[in-house]
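Hey, I was hoping to borrow your eyes for a little while. I've dropped the whole record in just underneath, so have a look:

——
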Amino acid sequence: MKLSLFNVKYIFKAFLFGSDYLILRVNNLYMQEIHSDSNFLQFLVFGVVGLVITFSLLYYILLRVGKDPKNLLPINFANRIKLPLLLIIIALVLRIGLLNNVFIYNYVKLISHTCTLLLIFSLTWFCIVLLKAFKGGLMRKYDITADDNLHARRVFTQFTILERVIVFLIVIFAIGIALMSFDNIRAIGISFLTSAGIAGIILGFSAQKMLATLVAGIQIAITQPIRLDDVVIVEGEWGWIEEITLTYVVVRIWDKRRMVLPTTYFIEKPFQNWTRTTSEILGTVFIYTDFYMPVDALREELTRLLKSTPLWDGNVNVLQVTNATETGMEIRALMSSKNSPTSWDLRVFIREKLITFIQQNYPECLPRTRIELKGNSATGVA
């Protein structure tokens, strides 16, 4: 088939037009790439400069605020908050870059998702640090080491448990938002909501004990049957409440052992709390003597011993004969002290000194056994 002159000219013009279009297209793409690179470099420079200036300014403000003792924020709050604050600013800078289309199109989705996760993580961290700092600032008003620390222990226990509840909820909420940012997981979540009733029943039965433990922890924070540093007797052991969490309680036994009990124990089972209403406590000492022991002399010696020691708080000083058997008398010395550890030391001190007093002044009044021999009409004392 022969080509006419008109066809040849048409093909030639089409070729020239296609070449010009191709060259123009390549040139436009090249200029767009140069323009995109220029925008990215500008964003990189101004973003880094803005990041440094913003972070430095906020960090300086937090340092100045933390130095003021009138504020609730602790002195080291700026150092504790600087890392999550830096991550928040970085996430915001990346979000600004996405809004101005400075990133390559192929990486926009990845950068956007990463920015979202970074913002969720940093905000969660920021909220937790801020909550702990706020709680620490409030607790500075209460001295838990004071002698009369009942109110301080009540407030400290309540705030500690509520802080852990809020942190738990913040973390769960953040994990849920982070997972919902994935398209596949969001689709699973939507389909899960359609069967939420059945799933809720199954989850309730499977996690019944865990939920009961969490509810017991919240109940302890509100009703406060126990508080930090309370003196308790649990499972036959005497000790102090050392730590209270949402799921368990740590009791420090007098011999430095630790007993870990679930929070449900203090809701469902009986136990003794010696410092429920006050830290003051009464101590008792029992002495067993013969009937010849003069009680008034022993009572005077108890008063002298109590006045000679700082362990006694000056309130209760009682000595009574509480029982009498065929072998002798039971004498009870009752005394008070500011707290249970001091009461223990006071009881030990009084017991040792009263025994020494009887040995040195009335040795014949120590416990003895009497035997009467009727055959020889004689009475013996052993």
About this structure: The CA atoms of residues 98 and 112 lie 7 Å apart. DSSP finds ten helices and ten strands in the chain.
